[in-house]
Amino acid sequence: MSAFSAAEWQSINTLGHAIDDDLERLQVGLTMGGEPTYVSATDLASLQWRYQALGDDKRELGERLLQRLQRDLAPVGSLLHNGVGKLYPAEPFPRWALGCFWREDGLPLWQHPEWLTGSPTAGLTWQAAKAFTEKLTEVLGISFESAMVARDGDTLQPVGFVLPILPVDIPTGRVWASCSWKFAAAMEDVVLVPGLTPAGMRLPLGQLKAPTELVAEAQGSLQDAPIQAARHPYLVSDNRIQVALCIEVRQGRLRVFVPPLMAVRGYVDLLAAVEQVACALQQPILLEGYRPPLNQGIQGFQITPDPGVLEVNIHPAASWAELVDLHRALDQAAVDCGLGTVRYERDGRSIDTGGGAHITLGARRPEESPLLRRPDLLRSFITYWQHHPSLSYLFAGQFVGPTSQSPRIDEAGPDCLEQLEMAFALLQPDAPLPPEMVDYLLHHLLVDVTGSAHRAAFCIDKLYPTNNLPQRLGLLELRGFAMPPDGQMRLLQMLLVRACVAWFWQVPYCQPFKRWGKVLHDQFLLPHYIQTDLTRVLQDLNQAGYGFEDAWFQPFLDFRCPIYGQVQLADYELELRHALEPWPVLANETDGSGSSRPVDDTTERLQVKLRRSEPSEPLWAAPMLVCNGQRVPLHRTDNPGEFVAGIRYRVRSYIWDWITPALGTVAPRQQQKLAQLLQPVSSLRFELFDGDSLNPLGGCLYQVPQSKGGGWPTTAEEAQRRRCDRIISLAPYECNALPKTPPVLNSPPKLHLC
User: Fold this and answer.
1) What's the pTM value of the predicted model, to 2 decimals?
2) Under a CB-based contact definition with an 8 Å cutoff, are residues 333 and 61 in contact?
3) Which of 430, 420, 578, 584 is nearest to 513 (CA)?
4) Among the listed residues 312, 365, 351, 323, the one whose alpha carbon sits nearest the alpha carbon of residue 497
5) Where do the domains of the chain lie?
């Protein structure tokens, strides 16, 4: 079921086209991409769909989705690529990356898909690799003597060939060059490093004798003439080329590992030569290795594994209409392949996939990026997001705060804002800076508490890094967006960002930072203040000419902070709603896989809201709310007769079970304090008293869901059953006496009030 009615979506779509008109009139040249994440729609409990990165079912679903997306999104002549993904700490091998790429000029990147993939062939030996290598060197104009036998590092049996290769410029033009490899140890063949990854990832490059200098790769665009085969094989001195094409037989398939080439001309021509040989020999192959260099006339998408999810790095779109068509097709393909966008906690609460749905901003070409042409646009985004915490918390996943995957800039450290203000003094609308200077000013400031730039809410790793030429893509990545349960909700997020681009392009937002202090987490992790702040954001956009409606964002609040229950107590309605809680990362702990960071998720937060049906004037005495024997500080809202409060409580304790036997050696008073600190609560008992007479008005008992046992829900119906019956109403006569003394909020009680 869609999150919006047909009329609401029509209004959203109309606004999207109006914003497009402004972006085109202003010649912004904006493109938007994203990284939606999906989980299995049927297997909601296995570890590969909870927190592990890899899994057999995940790989199978990824390949199925790749085939479907190639059919629906890619033009004829696209290339399927079985690439090398990222290598993470504590993981022995790089992850896989399934890609589909095509040329933007309409010419085919691969013309004969029948030779690109195939089923494993019984009896295929390394001789097939030899025949393929011989033919390929002939097509490229390289001597076969440059190709070296590759031997398995464990058995020393031959498995294929290694061919050092690089396009180079010579006086007569651009040709393919090769060289011989000489190792420090006396060996003629290449003995691969033991492992299960492709041969191209196990080359013993560290054993090569150091050359005087490396050969420079010839540059070239798709508009240049193809690289020609030299009349005579062009050889350079030993070891001066240290990238190699590898051809091996593994698991019954002939695999061609494409080396990392920086220039698109060389990659495309090498690919054409490989295809020519596959057709001539009628030999199916599987392409592995490095993907084509993007943003040089090549476009495409990749499917990669991430902890608990499949991530789709979708190609960018230049207009609202393209975004809508692209993401609708992506979501439909995911559903048809057995993927979904919702998980469930053990208590039945619906949560996001656990991965991100990051949004990227850029342009067709890196040098055309709005962030590089107008660096003050980056300043406007950073400042406005810092002014409005709802933009950081409403759209994020369940893990927020300083150690999350997208911390706010004012959560990274106490001095961050001061340093950014000094850098911002140079990011003025009327004084553009060189791209290198933008990276120099901000790269070390847009980080999390550990200094990681990749996990910042505003990630500029792919904007214009001074020390990483292939990553100069002109992209800004907004990481504070989790995967919504509905595709139209994801599109609305992107429309909100597009409206901010159009607004900031015309009116830069150059205000000083706000020092929120404790208010940031005390207030803006409660859904009431998130909603109030978002209303101010939408009012700003409306004044800028972009008519967003508050009702469009209600599905985000209901999904992010669902209502647990409502109870009528005399003239008051008491509402309990889920609130956000930052979870710190555990020190020096890992889950064993190295792909995720365990956190202390033993505390949760609840919002309590009281509404009086007929507020009287002048203001009456505020009611008294007691929770588990402690008085709850209520705060008046801007709505007459309405009060709100936040409650933190410990829902589980991982160390309580093993620390209990040690309490015998601790003094009784310390035992009591330690028990209060660590013992989780099983229920929250709310009791309401009249503010004038202090007579009891009633209350309710909130049953704290237990996280241990029972497994995760496997269907929406089971999740709904677990969500029911959390709240039990209490009659006035069931309320206990008022607390005789006010609570000491600085002590570590079992119930924490904020």
Assistant:
1) 0.90
2) no
3) 420
4) 323
5) 118-282, 562-753
